[in-house]
């Protein structure tokens, strides 16, 4: 026998026995997004590399080190999507979504690809639920976006997460902050990693999210962006905080949150859980007022967040939160004797057409093994169809949990009425 082929590093299978967990969480996410006025958007798994270089930023870790990029047969540079926002904005512009009026509110559930070193909670293919809120400059949009994720945590029963928020300013005030950062990091130039030396010239803010422990420590003493906000940014931040407070959403202010992607302006935030180890961020987002323009559109404000589904599930597991079990087999029909084979096949088909989860054996098992199989399927009811059932036109149905038996007509309608 040939060796089996294993999945690539950093990817996951969702097994048939586990997929109900995904369906449950996706259902909660879809419902919450819809309640908050978002419609689903779907986009390609791969895009032109240029979209991410321009949108995410060429000094970010994602673009510099993590993208899965290849040249297609036509010689074009293609990249597997490392994050969703750039794709949403590309689609918004390409399809003139602004034409129907602003704001445009959309959400997605989609896999992303990043060539990171895999560990618990960090994968090379991972699923994100994300929302984008395009066309509102107001703090109420910031508060509303954050409130959506707070509501999602609540609906999933996740407790004890911390929300940290920060404001990283706008093109008006950012240059002063950059200058202060540059001066600070310049004074500790000799200690920085190679990548950060490059960032020092191009974009000193990116040093703040370097993963090297030395750079992290140096960044700990760097100037705070909050000290450099212009009056508009300050007012925006104050109003956002006031609205969060009014909605009863607890938060702390953390000037070290700058987010790893270049497009953020003003409000940035993260939800963190202490229950899942090192990869503790379960949701991150913020405002990106310059992104739409960077990608070729009219200046339009926007904001959003993305949250990893795997990490949400890890938190739920760590907190012992049960996922509702999927509906099991409703009735198992065992055929005994050659004459029952074909009628049972038809009956199962008719029951399924009526929307009943009906099952039968298709592997040629004997009766005892068929009933074992019915147990494994968790069948609520079973019936053994033998020749005399067929001639009498009646079925004896067994309630598998109590063992009691009752009779009904051997028709799909009658059996359905008896078991649902
Ligand atoms: P980001 O797009 O980096 O802001 O990440 C947003 C969220 O996606 C994080 O808070 C995580 O929940 C999740 N996430 C990011 N990168 C990974 C990864 N490599 N593996 C699993 N989840 C991830």
Summarize it.
The protein has 15 helices and 16 strands. It has helices at 19-35, 49-56, 61-66, 85-94, 139-156, 174-187, 194-202, 213-220, 231-246, 291-294, 309-318, 341-353, 367-376, 387-392, 412-419; strands spanning 39-40, 46-48, 69-71, 77-80, 104-113, 125-134, 162-167, 252-253, 265-272, 281-287, 302-308, 331-335, 358-359, 381-385, 394-399, 405-409. Helix 5 (139-156) runs parallel beside helix 9 (231-246).
Structure description:
- By secondary structure, the protein is an alpha+beta fold.
- The chain has two domains: 257 residues, Bira Bifunctional Protein, Domain 2 (BirA Bifunctional Protein, domain 2, 2-Layer Sandwich); 89 residues, Rossmann fold.
- Strands 1-5-6-11-10-9-7-8 form an eight-stranded mixed β-sheet. It has a five-stranded mixed β-sheet with strand order 13-12-14-15-16, with helices on both faces.
- Strand 15 and strand 16 form a beta hairpin.
- Helix 1 packs antiparallel against helix 5, helix 5 runs parallel beside helix 9 and helix 12 crosses helix 15.
- The model has no long low-confidence stretch (mean pLDDT 95).
- The structure holds adenosine monophosphate.
- Adenosine monophosphate binds next to strand 6, strand 10, strand 11 and helix 11.
SSE arrangement:
Blueprint: H1 19-35, E1 39-40, E2 46-48, H2 49-56, H3 61-66, E3 69-71, E4 77-80, H4 85-94, E5 104-113, E6 125-134, H5 139-156, E7 162-167, H6 174-187, H7 194-202, H8 213-220, H9 231-246, E8 252-253, E9 265-272, E10 281-287, H10 291-294, E11 302-308, H11 309-318, E12 331-335, H12 341-353, E13 358-359, H13 367-376, E14 381-385, H14 387-392, E15 394-399, E16 405-409, H15 412-419
Parallel strand pairs: 1-5, 7-8, 12-13, 12-14
Antiparallel strand pairs: 2-4, 3-4, 5-6, 6-11, 7-9, 9-10, 10-11, 14-15, 15-16
Bound molecules: adenosine monophosphate (AMP).
Adenosine monophosphate (AMP) binds near residues 126, 284 and 306.
